[in-house]
Amino acid sequence: MNRATLWRLLPEPIREVPADLAAIAVWTVVTAFVVFVPPIDETPIRAAIGVTFVLVAPGYALVAALFPDDRAIDGLERAALAIGTSIAVVALLGLALSVTPWGLRTVPIVVAHGGLTLALTAIAVQRRRDCTPDDRFRVPYRAWVADARAELFHPDSRADAALNVLLIASLLLATASVGWAVFVPHQGEGFTEFYLLTEGDDGALVADDYPTEMVDGEAATLIVGIGNHEHEPVNYGVVGQLQEVRIENRTVEDRPNASGTATPTTAPAVIVEQREEVARFETTLGDNETAHRAVSVTPRTTGTELRLQWLLYRDGIPEKPTDATAYRTLHLWVNVSAAGGDSAPMAAIAQPAQ
Fold first, then answer.
1. Angle, CA 15 vertex, CA 10 and CA 19 arms, to 5°
2. Same domain, 173 and 27
3. Distance CA 199, CA 196 (A)
4. Which residue in 106, 163, 257, 341 has a CA-CA distance of 20 to 30 Å to 142?
């Protein structure tokens, strides 16, 4: 079966898609592939294809949708507009994403740019179909090369040549910078989000209405949230402790002043008298991945102004978890009342504080 026969087997709407717009659509899919699929996503291919995609594809699709015929602008103007509008599209999409819940992360960035490019490509295909065959734009590859050579190598003056080179270099540098920022993973300072939520009456997760009044032996549910932004997969461990604490004023020395004298001051310190472990779990998250874990807390003692503390660890939970060894900590102040009888004091059932 020869190539012509295979071509005729394709549906007519696909055969009528202009070659340049079909290339843009394929380019968009390939870009998403190299950005997300391992191990290609960790090679220089990701940056090369991602940068060139940002450099040309969104702007070319937009220009093709705006100018479906070959009369309004010539080939060189179309190419220059494609690069210029790509810069504008990338900048505007980045600005829009920065104020959304998704933020400037790899997945929403690629989905937004790819989706917009494919949508503009579909519009461009339809607009070209609406043009008469004589007016319809076709990619004049040979004419483009000839025009580019004439502008770059045979300008009217040396000043024109220098300006042409400077313009192209500026556009390439500006768009390449944007593309690198979008598609190359940022290796800045990593961090982990750690927070507590509850489930509202409508099922939505909210940072409100925490269970501060608890009953001995009755379960209360909290949602523990962890967001990994450490630029690598991380194995997290979480420990929940119900603690009996006291506040103690301790004397500390300030930094020496200009005369070299350090003035002692007092500052409150939280001393853990007893602790009872009420929850523990582990989870592994990839970079930019978030997990919400519903945790049931059942206190086995009573008391007022107890501290329900949550300790977050990376790469394993130590034998004796405390806030001094934790990567992140959270806490709530709770009261635990008795349920139909006496409850053992915390000191009788919990391990002593270390």
1. 130
2. yes
3. 10
4. 163
d(C-alpha 211, C-alpha 103), whole Å: 31
Range(s) of the domain holding residue 139 = 3-183
Distance CA 30, CA 27 (A): 5
In terms of domains, do 208 and 265 share one? yes
DSSP string for residues in 170-186: HHHHHHHHHHHHHHSPP
197 forms bridges with which residues in the sheet? Answer: 223
Looking at this protein, which amino acid is placed at residue 63?
V
Residue 307 confidence (pLDDT): 94
Contact (Cβ atoms closer than 8 angstroms) between residue 242 and residue 278: yes
Domain boundary among 167, 183, 199: 183
Cβ contact 58:85 at 8 Å: yes
Q: Residues 171, 226: one domain?
A: no
Q: Are residues 197 and 99 in the same domain?
A: no
Domain-terminating residue out of 183, 213, 230: 183
Q: What pLDDT, in 10s, does the model give residues 169-205? A: 776 776 666 556 555 555 567 899 999 999 988 888 8
